[in-house]
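PROTOCOL LOG
Step 1. Enter all chains and additional molecules of the complex.
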Amino acid sequence: MQEKVILNAEDFRRALTRIAHEVVERNKGGQEVVFVGLLTRGGPLAQRLARNIREFEGIEVPVGVLDIGLYRDDIPLGPPPQVRHTYIPGDITGKAVVLVDDVLYTGRSIRAAMDALMDYGRPRSIQLAVLVDRGHRELPVRPDYVGKNVPTSRDEEVIVRLTEVDGRDEVAIRKKETP
Amino acid sequence: MTWHHHHVLDLDDFSREEIEAVLETASAMKEVLTRPVPKVPTLRGKRVFSLFYEPSTRTRASFELAAKTLSAEVVGITAQVSSVVKGESLLDTIKTLEALGADAIVLRHPEAGAPYLAARYCRASIVNAGDGAHAHPTQALLDIFSLRQRLGDLEGLKVVIVGDILHSRVARSNIWGLKALGARVVLCGPPTLLPISFADAYAGVEVEWDLERALEGAGAVIALRLQWERQQDLIPSVEEYVAFYQLNAQRLSRARPGALVLHPGPVNEGVEIDPEVARGPQSLIDEQVTNGVAVRMALLYLLLGGAHE
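Step 2. Run joint prediction.
Step 3. Record the structure below.
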């Protein structure tokens, strides 16, 4: 299938820099912010946002990772997906937790992530940062920070590649392979 | 992930990859147990029955807690106070639980093979929580998980299992699991409780009747409970057993420094293990109990957490 690149490495870097600035601005300096990345690709994205903030604000934003497997409502057929390690840095009660994910689509992962977070404490607020918002929401979920809005159809898929996982930074779109 | 079991009956049909899948899942489940609210909605709407024809504290509590932590509905049945005393057979009981909507039945039974019989006539997943002297796969998995958390790779690790091997379902399941992960298994006990036939029954497993020799260079020791309910006349006296086979500090010093000590419980105080060793720094006995919940959560998740047509 033909892929179309919609964000290259440079666009990618700029989007994450802008989101990091917006997070600091919205949260009055970012002292109370905690990033929580949704596994798999939200993890490295959260790390990069924290690195950006360290560079231009000189503050250390804690970073966690969350596996939503145990909270999902849309389990694929077959054996259950591998559960991965969740790590939440310290007590999140009273903090501004920014969930970080690569692609926002139906909103179901975010619903699951919010349920999971509530089991760890009572954050002052939960915000959502995504690299790509591709639309087609099935739940009332709205992102606070968006790298790029990409109108898609349901028979397309958005592929996010990260240096940490895939060897390069890139977002592409292609027609879903019909089984 | 490699996983294709509908039942968990023993570890003899588990590949290394499947054991790894359980251990990896258990490690994530262990984190769930440390959360401020240790409960996840994963198995909402699933029904888990525990059906115990033999007494149990930790296995049963551990299974029920595991199922509840995953939000399953849990019903516990103790055979001594159920219709079993009115003569209801195992299969009738299983059928009844199935009619009540059981997705999984955790079964402990004094007869070896009972869970296999149940599995043949039942759509629900059967989890063997101990059948006679045959198998206790979840105990073996939690022993292995406890060792893995401390030691990492078990490849080449010398593990001594000492005590009443003859009657031990824990030993039998551990042999399969430890071998699958590449450990070197040495069985030890008096010849009446450890017939030489064990060396033939399990390829690559060593039999050693002298405990001090067995412990030479061992990285871990699993001490087993003397099962008085299954034998009375195979050892001359408790004193003699203690004199030759009790795991004490002096004997343990023959093993590798820091060698880990496990016991499936319940412990006969001062018989198979010296209380000082049981509560000492090398002992994993308390950790085994906590890890048991994580391992059983992992198994219930793997059995019931997927979607089926």
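Step 4. Note key features.
The helical segments of chain A are 9-26, 42-57, 108-118, 163-166.
The longest strand of chain A covers residues 96-104.
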